[in-house]
Amino acid sequence: MVKRPKGAIIGIGELKPVRYSEGKTTLSLIAESVQLALADAGLTKDEIDGLLVGPQVGETPQHVPATVSEYLGVSPIMSNTVDLGGATGAGMIWRAAAAIEAGMCETVVCVLANKNEKGQVPRSPNRNPIREFDVPFGASGANTSYALLKREHMEVYGSKQEDFARIAYWSRKNALKNPKAIFYDKPVELDDILQSPIISDPLRLLEIVMPCAGGAAVIVTSEEKAKQAKKKPVYLKGAGEKITHRAVSQAPAMDQLPFAYSIPQALQQAEINGEDLDLLSLYDCYTSVVAVQLESIGICRQGEFGDFVRNHTFGHDGDYPLNTHGGQLGFGQADLAGGMSHIIEAVIQLRGEGGDRQIADAKHALVTGNGATLSETTALVLGGEQ
Amino acid sequence: MTNISFPEPTITAVSKPFWDKINEKQFYLQQCEECKQWVFYPRAHCPNCFSAKLTWKEASGQGKLKSWSIVHRAGHPAWQERTPYAVGVVQLAEGPSLLTHLLINEQELRYQLPVEISYQQLNERLLPFFQKKGD
Q: Could you tell me if A149 lies within 8 Å of chain B, comparing CB atoms?
């Protein structure tokens, strides 16, 4: 039995996503995010003794911890790069808690940021199996990979385009209540999603996240130290993680994708049923990813997310509040920082700071992260009480 | 046509026998001598039992279609000129699955469609594309 590492989130900082970030570097966005999180926690940077960072393709591919430490002016006694794609943010949280519980350090800042300059497409110089055996056949990029997964779900279970479109519809609807969201003031109807341009059939444009610039930082400390926190701490109640493959061509069967382990693992550690969660903060780079996760939580049966999304509401006051910040489909995806938005929203809701979109009496949130093509998965249960 | 070339396979010492055979229009995969599982993509060990005893053997070049996508916006500029085109995941008769380019009309694509290898030249080399069985 995998043991739950104990820890609490005592600070959050998040930049408003913007389509392009002229004149910014990833490092400068990291610094802005950390400053916001420190202010939120009421801490000085000298109280940070742990640092978790992500890879920065095209800017700092190696020695990221040292580069970020130097830039921020901190000297952590525990630092590492977490490299789990979209699961990096969630993966950082339980690693931070584990490092704290192991006595490696006391207070960890987890930070991810991304610049996005107009006209620049970063291409990583990969020389690995996916580059050798997928790219030469015309299948580069995440769009086609997620399209293949979506098609497989449609063929195996009979799910329909409209079922997937509903997921994007709720994200965009929820984004209308988040002034920070990149689609805050851009409402769409179900038909707009179903008729948006085909990118990689069966995936359409509005089922895909908008790449943008932004950043986010989360501060994790021990449950003991959290008692003196400036704001209401949010506790790590459960965590699960599983990594199975890199390329979609090597993915396991639809009902054995890694969320089928990581989500139940997190729920089991937290001793909570899927039905008792107050917020589903589910990683949503594509509609197809949310579909798979809904089927792993135990709130609908394998292959039946379509009926589930047709028969329920998913706003902050709905049957199953889902990605109340708009999800990344509505909020924007600042590369790896996009995954952080699901953690930040859970903290906001569990603190009761949701304002117009506050979920009544929110006690438990499921937060997930997903990297590559449903390959790297992390699930956390966060709770408002220790 | 522009001068942008299609991204070529980044061949390694481990995978070279696979590509050398493809260039001779032969489809060879590794099989584990210990657990008998077929392995794709080429590796230095069997991902099932971790044995290092892998042997190159001729494979059927046949399989069934597990999934597919019609690409309208390609991830690489050279491929953009060919859009729309179909790619898919093929479950090979020997067990492993692979990603490939499909030479099949959109109307004929269906789950579990029997498919077979079709060697196609791209840039200066042959690649294992797949077509509908019997085409």
A: yes
This model of the complex carries an ipTM of 0.92
Chain B touched by A141 (CB under 8 Å): yes
In A, minimum Cα distance to B8 occurs at A136
Residues 9-68, chain B, touching A (beta carbon < 8 A)? 9-12, 15, 41, 66-68
Q: Name which of B66, B79, B99 is nearest A134 (Cβ-Cβ).
A: B99
pLDDT tens sequence across A164-180: 999 999 999 999 999 99
Residues of B in contact with A202 (CB under 8 A): 69
Name the CATH topology of B60-135.
Answer: OB fold (Dihydrolipoamide Acetyltransferase, E2P) (2.40.50)
Chain A residues within an 8 Å CB radius of B97: 249-250
B66 interaction partners in chain A (CB closer than 8 Å): 152
- Give the burial string for A306-315 (b: 16+ CB within 10 Å, else e): bebbeeeebb
DSSP result, A317-364? TSSS-B-TT-HHHHH-B-TTHHHHHHHHHHHHHHHT--GGGPPTT--E
Residues of B in contact with A155 (CB under 8 A): 67, 110-111
> Following DSSP, what letter does each residue of A173-186 receive, concatenated?
HHHTT-TTSTTTT-
- Interchain pair B73, A200: CB under 8 A: yes
Query: A78-81 and A50-53: which strand pairing?
Result: parallel
Q: What residues contact A123, with CB distance under 8 A and at least 6 apart?
A: none
Q: pLDDT 10s digit of each residue in chain B, 135 long?
A: 445 789 999 999 999 999 999 999 999 999 999 999 999 999 999 999 999 999 999 999 999 999 999 999 998 999 999 999 999 999 999 999 999 999 999 999 999 999 999 999 998 899 999 999 998
CATH 2.40.50, chain B: domain bounds: 60-135
Residue ranges and CATH numbers for the domains of chain A are 8-119+209-383 (3.40.47.10)
Region label for B13, one of left (φ > 0), alpha (ψ between -120 and 50) or beta (otherwise): alpha
What is the pTM assigned to this prediction? 0.95
